[in-house]
Amino acid sequence: MATRGIARLIRSQFVHDLPLVIFGCAVAALATDMFLIPSGLAAGGVTGIATIINELAARQGINLPVGIQTIVMNAAIMLLVVRSGGMMYAVQTATGFVLYGFFTDLFAPFVVPLGHSELLVPALWGGIILGLGLGLSFRCGVSTGGSDTVAQIIARRFSLPLGTTVMVIDCLICAASAPVFSVDNALAAALSMVVTGIVVDRVVDGGNTQRAAFIISEHYEEISHDVLHGLDRGVTRIQARGEWTGEERPMLFVILDKREIQLLKAVVAERDPRAIMVITDVNEALGEGFKELGA
Question: Is 294 a member of any domain?
Fold first, then answer.
């Protein structure tokens, strides 16, 4: 089983897209080193926490590089969240935060910090360039970890909407940076965070945030288990029948964020390379787990 998984990984689209993933992570790290860290902008996520810790440690004469901090924190979070998402899911998730953390520390001694007397300039340009780099990685199904994975734990435990939970966590991190840097820095970091999110949406595919996937496979039980416990997404099983063969087989229906589509593809491909999967846009999702009806 493990050998087949490794073989599929080697032949996968993920390996084909790896140069773009590396470039995207490098661009994101460059933005972090040039604009965000030098200006004291803790723009949410694990990187924001690491930026705060880095500043507090520096005041005590201790060097705690932001990159290695993000790798350690993301690895710890991943152990709590990733239970059965499959090897491809784990590899794609780990690749993102390791590359991003590695490049962040690699570039730090060499880049020229482009801080500015007005925080608006590094906040905007840092957010734009960071969003560009992250968006390129997300297009290839690779995430750099961070608040998304923390939000999965909290949202699952307290039955909260995932998107709202991510936003609250990132805002709290920005707010926590105010006593360390300043209120102006915290506000600029929040602005940079919003800009990053907008650019990521545009780079990935234009801003529509949700997708619906229909999956037909003989291995529907394994795929359903991986989606439920690996991606932490709900799955609806619909009984379907092939008109040509007359065979009845369950079809899985999943609604998820566009950034998770490539992870879903990896999960399905690992379980059943011959599966049929149809992905479509969702204009709006209402009801349990989504926006309330009538809201």
Answer: no
What are the E-state strand segments in the chain? Answer: 210-216, 236-241, 248-257, 276-281
What b/e readout covers 233-259, taking b as 16+ CB neighbours within 10 angstroms?
Answer: bebeeeeeeeeeeeeeebbbebbbbbb
Among 175, 205, 235, the domain-final residue is 205
Confirm if 126 and 36 have CB atoms less than 8 A apart.
yes
Q: How far apart are the C-alpha atoms of 261 and 243, rounded to whole Å?
A: 28
Tell me the per-residue pLDDT of 50-73, one tens digit each, with 9 for 90 and over: 999 999 999 999 999 999 999 999
Residues 187 and 250 grouped into a single domain: no
Nearest to 23 by CA among 264, 203, 194, 261: 203
123-157 pLDDT, tens per residue?
999 999 999 998 888 888 777 777 776 776 676 67
What is the Cα Rg of the chain in Å? 20
Q: Does the predicted TM-score (pTM) go above 0.90?
A: no
At 188, phi and psi to the nearest 5? -65, -40
Domain C-terminal end among 141, 171, 205: 205
Cα distance between residue 179 and residue 288, in whole Å: 38
